[in-house]
């Protein structure tokens, strides 16, 4: 039988777990007090090497208008340093190579298109007809439901999560509804969950024009922490585009490829993605997204949805235009893991710590992923993909 472990996060319980499990000083020597609020049954920490890459990016400044639309209020070109936490040999070198080619071609440009977080609730009715009545009623009640949340004094509510839209979908006797919120500088999953629960139980169940047999807070229509067409199309988090126009000279000298090589790879890769049913049409965005997430205290469970991407490359006069669209980068600069000391330090290095910085972080993450896309694609595009093979052979660690 495994030992019965204490579950509290006080110093004595932490030490008791360490002793019971026979852990050595590698994972137990650090002071775990700063980590005790971030997780349950804290017993140790894992050290992941963090390397840095340098990017030149034209970053937009954004604010939400009264309807929750992201509006650009300014723009500035900057040189930014990006921390990448990973154990993937060659990743940082590849990001830096792509960033160098782009810097020599004029730099990245990034844009925030939208900002929404979604909770997919469901109300089970007696019949499809009743579910249709409920769906039409819900869509008509948006202003009243927004006012209900704003006026409510329920202690569980968050004032930072603002209800923006309600999208319904009836199947059988079920009325699914996507509550779409903006959540400020936090990722917002917890705060919108609290608000959606209050809305479901305090407004919909109480005032619905038809009997509701069951209310379900999250019924999976959106795809929380799972890649889905709904999130790929409508977004879940910050919708961001990063682009760059590479010169033929930078492609030749830095990437050691040609415009034609990259166009041919994009043509073959896009059709390969379609043939396999991929929702993402991109090379390897998850590696860059995960590395930025791990360094900055983001929720790693959201890498799968946040790394859904649509990459596009096409030839232009004198070079190649490359872009990548992320429909839902689920990032935050306050709360959660961003409060941990190491994450906070890396966020500060990026100029992304604290309130008012979340759109900046989302744009930097997108530009970093595009840098990797460009470099990895160039390595794969060479004859026989020899450069891609050699990079993994020479930097892949133990043989």
Molecular structure report:
This protein is of the alpha+beta class. The protein is built from 14 helices and 9 strands. The chain has helices spanning 11-21, 25-28, 91-103, 128-140, 142-151, 189-207, 229-234, 248-253, 259-276, 285-296, 303-306, 341-350, 358-381, 386-395; strands at residues 50-64, 70-85, 108-124, 162-171, 174-182, 214-216, 237-247, 310-316, 319-329. Helix 3 (91-103) packs across helix 13 (358-381), helix 9 (259-276) packs across helix 13 (358-381) and helix 13 (358-381) crosses helix 14. The radius of gyration is 23 Å and the shape is globular. The model has no long low-confidence stretch (mean pLDDT 92).
In a nutshell, what does this entry contain?
This protein has 14 helices and 9 strands. The chain has 399 residues and is an alpha+beta fold.
Structure classification: alpha+beta
User: What is the overall number of helices?
Assistant: 14
> What is the CA-based Rg, rounded?
23 Å
The string of secondary-structure elements, in order, is: HHEEHEHHEEHEHEHHHHEEHHH
- Kindly report the average pLDDT value: 92
Shape: globular
Outline the low-pLDDT stretches: none
In what range is the share of β-strand residues? 15-25%
* N-to-C span: 38 Å
Instruction: Report the biggest beta sheet as strand number plus sense, adding barrel if it closes.
Output: 9 strands, mixed
Query: What is the helical fraction, as a range of percent?
Result: 40-55%
Number of strands: 9
